[in-house]
TrEMBL record, chain A:
Keywords: Cell inner membrane, Cell membrane, Membrane, Transport. This is Nitrate/nitrite transport system substrate-binding protein. It holds the Pfam family NMT1_2. CDD domains: PBP2_NrtA_CpmA_like (cd13553).
From TrEMBL, chain B:
It holds the Pfam family ANTAR. The modification 4-aspartylphosphate is found at residue 60. PROSITE patterns: ANTAR, RESPONSE_REGULATORY. GO terms for biological process: phosphorelay signal transduction system. It comes from the Bacteria. GO terms for molecular function: RNA binding. It comes from Amphiplicatus metriothermophilus. SUPFAM superfamilies: CheY-like (SSF52172). Keywords: Phosphoprotein. This is Response regulator receiver and ANTAR domain protein. Residues 10-124 form the Response regulatory domain. Residues 130-191 form the ANTAR domain. InterPro entries: ANTAR (IPR005561), CheY-like_superfamily (IPR011006), Sig_transdc_resp-reg_antiterm (IPR008327), Sig_transdc_resp-reg_receiver (IPR001789), WH-like_DNA-bd_sf (IPR036388).
Amino acid sequence: MKPEISNLTIGFVPLTDAAPLVVAQEKGFFEKYGLHVCLSRENSWSQIRDKLAAGAIDAAHMLAPMAPASWLANAYAAEKFVTAVAFNLNGNAVTVSEKLYQEMVAADPDAMFERPTSARALKAVIAERLRKGRETVTVGAVFPFSSHNYALRYWLGAEGVNPDRDVRMVVAPPPFMVDQLDRGKVDMFCVGEPWNTLAEHRGLGRAIVRSADIWRHMPEKALGVRQRWAEDNPDTHIALVSSLLEALIWLDERANRMEAAYLLASERYVGLPAALLAPALVGKGALRTRRSIVEAEDFLIFHHYAANYPWRSHALWFLSQMARWGQIEAPANFLAIADGAYRPDIYRIAAARLGVAAPLCDAKTEGAPDRAWVLTEATAPIAMSASAFIDGGVFDPAAVGPYIEGFIRHNLRIDPSQVYAGA
Amino acid sequence: MERQTETPLIVLLIDSKPERAKIVEDGLRGAAVVRQAPALHGAELLAVVERLQPDAIIIDCDSPDRDTIENLQLVARKNPKPIVMFVENGDGALAREAVRAGVSAYIVDGLSERRVLPVLEIAIERFRMFDALWKDLERSKRDLEARKVIERAKGLLMQKRGLSENDAYAAMRTMAMNQGKTIKDVADNILAVASLFDD
């Protein structure tokens, strides 16, 4: 199958999970499928979105929620994006400044020793600060439509903290986050690696909870392309998904992770020492206390547990959180968006060519079961693990409305019974 | 909601290249009141936006601070709600032009297109103009550099081989043609080889 176009420019943001693109480039997986790729380093997610929409790049390293978000009227994308392959599950952490950490320990020592750590101690700190007439806690997140934003908000919301009222949320790009923490401009942040590791390494803060603790299998980055591009270039798209799938399988081998750290360290990619990139890649992550209940190897998942499959239930969960936090202002048909933006059908074609097992169902219940299981509705059985949420919640993709209504904290701007209606 | 009173537009310009910011500011004079944000990020940048209450924000496409600006409309409801200009524009042609020129713009929710478009168009044109100026400058720097190298290599040939100025230049041109290189490359080689023997 010859791709319609062979010269591609793909945008990425300097992060550990740009690894699949870097590995596909450096280990020759793109070339294997007849693709000549130029990787273009971008400074922000807005830049990724606009360059992709304008056609300045063909495909991009993208925050998973950006694809469904691009189908919303107010998401500011000029084009609709689709994804047919996810890069990873998990990989983010919440880091608090050393000062805030001490405040939290003083406010509620028991809560700080629970695993996973909840926002209970933080809530006590916020209440105390407000009572004394002091500024509340300033929280850094990386992009409005990001798993980081939803993880952080989920974690805060689970303890009844309203992220739009009780704390001050600001957005700063990942490479600036550690500096902002150092200068006291943010008290805590949720960001991908290697920035949590860097904050700990410099003694500025502590990673207290990983995104994997908030949702055991939180979808993180994906490959995004324009919907129209995917329609015009189906074979190129499949070639691209296939080459990335090979890179992801390569990355899944722990023996290859140090090599990946050295590849990423290059100035062309992340431009940080391999020693700072390695902890997240080899599975330790940034967690100073090392007492998380999540096994080390689950910190960053590149392929196993069907990690690359674009589950439509993931798209629906992201949409549920966008609605929950007021990012969706007009009724929208969530099912139509999930079907349009997430393309498991394309994934299955690429997986079949590679002989990789692929799920045959498009959605699954998220947050359950709470133990390891085997997905049999697949071309070959796939080992899956627990996917619990920190508050024990269960997401049924067939009942999005009631799910949204069930949260104690939300800032809804649409009627949750209307999530299957709308244009 | 379109504004009834024609107060001047307040534009916040965020650009890390001061030379370009100057060009954009000059271009927008008369069309809008321009304020510049120095190198501020995150919470500090938000504080500036809050204080200035700009109608539009024009920002370098490559700036990482764009993600900070994007979040304004979602977290701080009292702030102006920036919208990426592109949504308003049906066919996306303006967006493509803007991205190519390296400019992004955010406008306050409800501000009329009629008022903002000319400002954005000027900004795009100015970004391009800067780009062209920059390229010209780079090219003339390179030309000057090449001429210096060629002169030195020519002098060397005249001195070592006893050639006339014309013959020395002709010799380099022949070498360049035979090797499929530029005269500058040949001159570089001559100087590099000469430096080996000088040491």
